[in-house]
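Journal club prep — side note

Before the paper discussion, L.F. wants everyone to see what a predicted structure for a comparable chain looks like in token form. Sequence:
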Amino acid sequence: MNHDYDVYEQERLDRERRRSNLEHIRAYYGLEARCGIRVDIGIRVRSEGHEGTVVDTAGQYLVVQRDGEERPVKLHVTSGMEYETDAGWVSASPRPTPAYPGAAG
């Protein structure tokens, strides 16, 4: 089997996985409409006082390379996250949870 083909095929699969994960994250959390944040690879983020760059996705999580750290970390999209936008740093609020049947309004 051609090694170059394997590498290119894996790169294609990785791009497709990231695209699919980002589509899900954008649709589910709605941060663009709610907070003005467009989640994408390369966006600058801050979590627990540590700044970094989104380098990948892992399901509904973001893989972030924190500045000055050797290994990337997996972080939840809204849990304590801030995103750098043209307007400055913006906190990502959790997605509102719809009330379950019988819940007090």
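L.F.'s comment for the group: The two ends are 61 Å apart (CA to CA). Keep this in mind when we get to the figures.
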